[in-house]
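Hey all, quick one. A colleague (J.T.) asked me to put the pyridoxal-5'-phosphate job into the tracker so the inputs and the structure tokens live in one place instead of scattered across chat threads. No bug as far as I know, just bookkeeping. Sequence used:
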Amino acid sequence: MRVYNFSPGPSALPLAVLEKAASEMTDVNGTGQSVMEMSHRSKDYKPIIEKTEALLRELMGIPSNYKVLFLQGGASLQFSMVPLNLAASEPGLPKKKAVYIDTGIWAKKAADEAAKYAEVSIPASSKDKAYTYIPAAPAPEAGTAYYHITFNNTIVGTKWASIPDTGAVPLVSDISSCILSEPLDVSRFGILYAGAQKNLGPAGTTVVIIREDLIGHAPSLTPALLRYDIHAGEGSMYNTPPCYGIYIIGLVLEWLKNLGGVPAIEQKNREKAKLFYAYLESSKSFLSPVEKPFRSLMNIPFVSRETDPDRRKDIEARFVREAATAGLVNLAGHRLVGGMRASIYNAMPIEGVKALIAFMERFA
Ligand SMILES: *Cc1c(COP(=O)(O)O)cnc(C)c1O
């Protein structure tokens, strides 16, 4: 029996995608091979990566002056690649400035990594209130190499309510946990990046969408595998790309297109989130710690209203355990914040949210 999987990542994939992949496991497109067995440079693989890129461009409305790269190393490697390619200088020369807005654990990790290669400033943070809101974003100084935000904060469940205006300074965003969940104007960004394992496919592939003028600025000592110009110049095939992951992403994008694309999934995502937040608002047993204008559509943390900390911890542990027994799995909050969290990415049907609410009513 399939469970309702609320994992923050790697996360549930559409059943139709898994079944299609299973049916093609040993022979894809009449080639007599699995995707895992074919050369990434073969005529059999070429249409697979090309289809994935074309669908991503179509569904996200990616303008033609942006490159799409399929890389490895997760979103975390982009924490290094972004500053290395956009702000690092040749030895002896001053580092360029980069702005990071601190909206949570991933945003802070990105800033800490960037500080090795860039002169990082953090003009705004929501740490004062345990990251339960998104702070106002100050305009950057002229000459700043880039401005980094984490659009959806997976652990604390916040999302930027609008795209900040950074003028001529390129805006870079980690969209690992919200890519394709609702329309996003790609042309407002210099770079968008996402680890695939939240809303796109299996772990191991990272999607980078980069404006062409931001390619080619890495200092000469930058390792080849960490340079955007090399990956872009080789069509993501400087070395072996994550072939199977790219194939699954293609199937997920096909599934999404057949559903009606991003506007259609946005409507479903809004319906799911509205239902769940409305339940939390009305519940005498649970609450959402996140300020209303900044609530994520994808990751919804919630806690028990019990005020005694020890009792609360017991209740929450029991909740996660009993929910799993009822077929609602991976509801524990992030190990650093505790509580519970329902990650309801594109692949989570509204029935899963309804089943969770029904369980919460029984548990209460
Ligand atoms: C999961 C996540 C990451 C880390 O992704 P990896 O692919 O494991 O490196 C980074 N940023 C955000 C917003 C995430 O949700």
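Adding what we noticed when we looked at it: The first strand starts at residue 4 and ends at 5. The chain has two domains: 15-258, 260-363.
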